[in-house]
Each structure stands twice: as structure tokens, then as C-alpha cells.
Specification:
heterodimer; A: mainly alpha; 0% strand; B: mainly alpha; 13 helices; 58% helix
């Protein structure tokens, strides 16, 4: 054997080292500033260099005995892999794509779960309504005094009427209250989703409780012959708000169902696939709650006219109905995972 | 201490391995992130509060709490500021792209496994109200279980990791070191010191495992105690393969480096022929 010759792997490394170093530089830059700061030339080079390093690694694993070289290649390829297959749509494009396609489709996929969530909420409302008719004091069980703000059976009818049309009062206070309600509702929505992991039971309880609160207050206003005014007060924002809470409840029930009755794959695999879509539903719901908060804080307080209020409620309901049943139909199937860098068009 | 390995297969069909992060690494990263979050909320209270009133503060604080983690993970491909500092990152267990949906799914569940338990622990009266002792105790146990969920599995998965199918791993990193077998550096080769030569029979003694150990010894030659190890290993190898110097005896490092190069050339040659030897003959 020729003792002067270098080991085979020395030549192997010498021939490829320059491309590895070039790849490492690009990956370094990605890790510091993200993909968007790469030049067009670098962006084009990245997948080419990655594949070269990848094939070098698979050769090296079987026939190179330089352990430090192997460790270097393993780390380099793993780092490059995470950037080559990173999602590359900008935040705005992603949000637009999500709003026009993925969100309504995800909601359609769990429509029965949403229906069950809505049914539980209505059940709660019916129970509280019926109980109030029997004994008005049950109101205090369902509506915490912090949320009631004096709207309880002890209040005068005049005061209750005022709360429904309090427009000219202190604007700052109203805005604060609206913001408080939004954060409260949105927290409940996010929490409901998280509770799905606990087999959905707490989520159902939370929906039931929201229904109880709604039912008790409705009963109170009906009791004072303020039904028309009450619904004009609650519906403009309530349509979006209650729908959003039902969506989160539906998402939680879908997660719970997957946990209790696993599909053909393992529980963890199924859960991950579903959880991803449900997380999106929660994000969409938060956007809906923000919209509801804006209607509540700005529009409702400045428009005392009942017809306009009901009109707005009707329009919002029609818009959501059209949005969730029509938008993005048939576009989802064509929408695969984000294409990898350098995939030929 | 390091976590268990997590491996995934790239679309090209190659298996890549990652080291999952330990609970302590993740805790430190989380603490850094919570510190940043708290600072941002305080800043909002101090700057926005006096000018716009408490309403916007509520909303901004809420949006920060719910979206800070998701936003910072989405914008940097799975690394919040805390994770970046700790050299951790989020990857998808199946190796797919870390899309926004994945990031949202794994971070919305923080509300139940982090923020709610923290709130209950920090302000127990507001949540337990006037419930009786046993019920309060039960609720506390439940809350602590939620908080400590990652400690119940070896991969330290949060509930959010399960919901989104993600893992938190250590960022892979390794520098390209000088190849020990690539011949001595320029100035050395100009010296007339002859390279020790080995016979095929002398190279047939050791296997791949011994080669790896020898590489370690050579790389740590400058470390404290490296000199002694070098001498001991050189003596043991000389004895084992029955090596005798033809000219003046070379230094231990020169001898071992030459032996390493010759041994690697020999084993790699055999490897290309399909003969793999893991250990020395006993």
C-alpha cells in the first residue's frame, strides 16, 4: 500500500470543503437576520448547496471515519435543512391567505362540533332563563357582580333602561369597559381551546356558564319589558362574540374527540394534525372578538336608534353566514404545504 | 446532561438527529421571555396608560400576552428571544415547515398551562373564593399538574407541543476542525523529520472504535493532562503493534498522528471494499 497517499476522506473533504463553508455562511446569515435578508443569488444557491452537503453527509456516514468531519456535516445539514424548508410567505400574505381560505375551511370541518357548542350555550341560557322566572335571586349565582355593574334584580327599570342607551355619559369609562369585556371574552375563548386537552369537560362547563350568564341577564330585561331594547343592545356585537366563543368551544370539542376516540393513526399524530388547524381557529376567533369589541365600544354607544342596531346585527350575521359557508370553497385541496426552496416550478 | 435524541426524515430520505432540550434549558428560556413580556407590559402601562387611558392598556397587554410567543417564534423560524439566547429552537416533529398555524397552536395553549396556573398561584383568593379547603387543595393540585406537565415525559413536551406536533431542540452546531490525517502543516513538512511508516499487519490490529479514541487523544493533546495521556497511548500502541523506529525515534505526537493517518487510510480503504471492523481483535 502506498503510505504517502492521504486517506480517502482527506480528498473527499478537500474537493467539497469550499461549498460547505459557503453554505455555512448563508445559514449563519439566516440565523442572524432570517431568510428575507438573503440576496437573490444566495437564495438560489441555498438549496443547491444544501443538497450537495446532504449527499456528502450520506456518503460520509457510510465511509468516512473522520469523526469531527461527520459531526460538522451532521450539524451543517440539520441547520441548513431547517432554513431550506422554512415557510417563506410574509406575514401579510399569510394572514390574507388564512382569512380567505384556511379559516372558513377549518370552521366548516368542525361545523358539528360548533353546533354542539352552540347548543350547550343555548341550553345554559334556557336553564338560567327558566330559573329566573321561578326565583329572581338565582340571578346572583350566574352573573358576578363585577360584570353586572349594578344590572341586577335590585335595580330600577329606569336604571336598566339607561344602561342600554348610555351613550352621552363618560366616553372614557365606556371604552375602558369595552376593552375589559374584550380581554375577558378573548381570554375565555383562548382558555376554552386549551381546555379541550382535558377531554373537553371544562370547555363544556365554560360554554354552559357563558349561556347561564346570558340567560339570566336576558330574563332580567324581559322581566322589565325591555326585551326589544335588550336584544338591540346585545345582538350587534353578540352575534360575532357568541359565534367566536362557539368556534373555540367547537375547536376544544374536536380536540377532545380526537383524544377520546383516536383515528387510524396514533393519538399524538392525530392530535398534532388537528391541533394545528384548531390553533388557527382560535386566532380567527380573537379577530372576530376584536371586531365585536369595536362594535360594542364605538358603534353601539353612539347609535341609540333601535332599527339601525337591529340592521347592523342582521348584516353581521348574514356576513358571517356567507363567510363561513361560501368563502374559500374548493381552494383548500389545491393548497399543499409550503413548497420547499428550489423546487422546480 | 442532555435530552433524548429526536430524529426526523428529510424529504430527500436522509435521517437527521436533533437533541431535545432539557427542562432546565427550557425553563431559563421561558424566564427570559417572561421577563421581556413583563417589561413590555410595564412599558405599555407607563407610556400608553397616562395618554390613552386604561382601555387600550387592557387590549395591548392582552395581545402581548397571547401573541408575544407566537409572534417571536413565527418571525424567526421557531426561536423566541429566550430560546435564541439558550440556543434552542422549535421544530416540527415530522420535519415539516414551521408554519404560522403550528406556532399559533403551540402557543395558545400557554393560556391554560402557564398563565392560568400562574394567576391562580399568585392570587389564590380571587379564584378559590370561599370554597372549602379540600376543593381548594384539589384545584391547586390540578393547577400544579398542568404547570409541571413537561416533567411527565422524557422529551419534556408541553401540552402545546402535543397539540401542534412540535419539539424543542438544541440548535445543532459544530465547527469544521483541521483534518488530523491531512498531513502536517506547512512549516512542519519542510523540516526533514521523516514520517513513521507502518506495515499492513501493524494496521490490522485496531478497529474504528480505537481510531475514534485516538482522534480524541490527539485533539486534546494541548489540554491539561493531554501530554501524559499522549505518552501513555503512544507507548501502549508501540508495544501492541511491535513498532520499532528505523531512524531517530519520533516524538509521541508525530508518531500518533502518523499512526492515526495510516490507520484511517487503512480502515477507510477496507470500508470502501465493504469490510467494516468496529473493534480491535481481542
Amino acid at each position: 500500500m502506498n503510505q504517502a497517499a492521504d486517506p480517502w476522506s482527506v480528498r473527499f473533504r478537500r474537493e467539497r470543503e469550499a461549498t460547505w463553508v459557503e453554505l455555512e455562511k448563508i445559514v449563519d446569515q439566516c440565523e442572524r437576520h432570517g431568510l428575507r435578508r438573503l440576496s437573490a443569488a444566495q437564495l438560489a444557491r441555498l438549496p443547491v448547496l444544501y443538497r450537495a452537503a446532504l449527499s456528502a453527509l450520506s456518503v460520509a456516514r457510510s465511509s468516512v471515519l473522520d469523526r469531527s468531519l461527520l459531526a460538522y456535516l451532521e450539524a451543517l445539514v440539520a441547520r441548513a435543512y431547517l432554513w431550506v424548508y422554512a415557510p417563506r410567505r410574509g406575514a401579510l400574505a399569510l394572514a390574507a391567505h388564512y382569512a380567505t381560505t384556511l379559516f372558513p375551511a377549518a370552521v366548516r370541518a368542525i361545523r358539528w362540533h360548533v353546533a354542539i357548542a352552540a347548543a350547550v350555550l343555548l341550553l345554559g341560557a334556557a336553564i338560567a332563563f327558566a330559573l329566573f322566572r321561578v326565583d329572581a335571586d338565582t340571578y346572583h349565582y350566574f352573573v358576578p357582580s363585577a360584570l353586572a355593574q349594578g344590572r341586577d334584580p335590585g335595580a330600577t327599570t329606569e336604571h336598566l333602561r339607561e344602561t342600554l342607551f348610555a351613550g352621552g355619559g363618560d366616553d372614557d369609562d365606556l371604552l375602558t369597559f369595552a376593552a375589559f369585556l374584550f380581554t375577558h371574552n378573548a381570554s375565555v375563548a383562548v382558555l376554552t381551546y386549551g381546555l379541550g386537552f382535558l377531554f373537553g369537560v371544562p370547555a363544556l362547563l365554560l360554554l354552559l356558564y357563558t349561556g347561564l350568564m346570558l340567560g339570566a341577564m336576558t330574563a332580567l330585561y324581559h322581566d322589565r319589558d325591555l326585551a326589544v331594547e335588550w336584544w338591540s343592545w346585545i345582538l350587534p356585537h353578540g352575534v360575532s362574540e357568541l359565534l367566536a366563543i362557539c368556534l373555540c368551544g367547537g375547536a376544544a370539542l374536536a380536540v377532545a374527540q380526537r383524544l377520546l376516540f383516536p383515528g387510524p393513526h396514533s393519538r399524538l399524530h392525530d392530535l398534532a394534525a388537528l391541533g394545528r388547524r384548531m390553533g388557527g381557529i382560535v386566532a380567527g376567533s380573537i379577530a372576530m372578538l376584536l371586531l365585536a369589541g369595536m362594535i360594542e365600544g364605538v358603534f353601539r354607544q353612539t347609535v341609540p336608534d333601535l332599527r339601525v342596531r337591529y340592521l347592523l346585527a342582521g348584516v353581521t350575521a348574514a356576513c358571517w353566514l356567507a363567510y363561513f359557508t361560501r368563502v374559500g370553497r374548493g381552494r383548500v385541496a389545491a393548497d399543499g404545504p409550503t413548497p420547499a426552496a428550489g423546487t422546480p416550478p | 446532561m442532555s435530552g433524548p435524541r429526536h430524529s426526523l426524515t428529510t424529504p430527500e430520505g436522509l435521517e437527521l438527529g436533533f437533541t431535545t432540550a432539557t427542562a432546565s434549558e427550557r425553563l431559563v428560556a421561558l424566564t427570559i421571555d417572561l421577563g421581556i413580556l413583563l417589561a413590555a407590559v410595564l412599558l405599555t402601562v407607563l407610556v400608553v396608560g397616562p395618554t390613552l387611558g386604561p382601555g387600550p392598556v387592557y387590549v395591548i397587554a392582552f395581545l402581548l400576552r397571547v401573541f408575544y410567543f407566537a409572534w417571536s417564534e413565527a418571525r424567526s423560524n421557531g426561536r423566541t428571544f429566550g430560546k435564541r439566547r439558550m440556543h434552542l429552537r422549535v421544530i416540527r416533529a415530522d420535519g415539516g415547515p414551521l408554519s404560522t398555524e403550528v406556532v399559533l397552536a403551540r402557543n395558545f395553549s400557554r393560556e391554560i398551562e402557564l398563565f392560568l396556573p400562574l394567576q391562580i398561584i399568585l392570587t389564590p383568593d380571587a379564584y378559590h373564593g370561599d370554597h372549602a379547603g379540600p376543593l381548594t387543595l384539589l384545584a391547586s393540585v390540578w393547577v400544579v399538574l398542568l404547570l409541571l406537565f413537561p416533567l411527565t415525559n422524557r422529551q419534556r413536551l408541553r401540552i402545546g407541543d402535543l397539540l401542534a406536533g412540535t419539539r424543542v431542540v438544541v440548535e445543532p452546531s459544530a465547527a469544521l476542525l483541521r483534518d488530523l490525517a491531512a498531513g502536517p502543516r506547512g512549516e512542519r513538512s519542510r523540516q526533514a523529520e521523516p514520517e513513521p511508516q507502518f506495515l499492513d499487519a501493524q494496521l490490522a490490529v485496531y478497529g474504528i472504535k480505537e481510531l475514534d479514541v485516538l482522534e480524541d487523544v490527539l485533539r486534546k493533546a494541548r489540554a491539561p493532562g493531554g501530554e501524559e495521556t499522549l505518552a501513555a497511548v503512544a507507548a501502549s500502541i508501540r508495544k501492541r503493534i511491535g513498532w520499532t523506529a528505523t531512524g531517530p525515534a519520533p516524538a509521541d505526537y508525530t508518531f500518533l498522528r502518523a499512526f492515526y493517518a495510516a490507520q484511517r487510510r487503512h480502515l477507510e480503504h477496507r470500508l470502501l471494499l465493504g469490510q467494516r471492523r468496529e473493534h480491535k481483535r481481542s
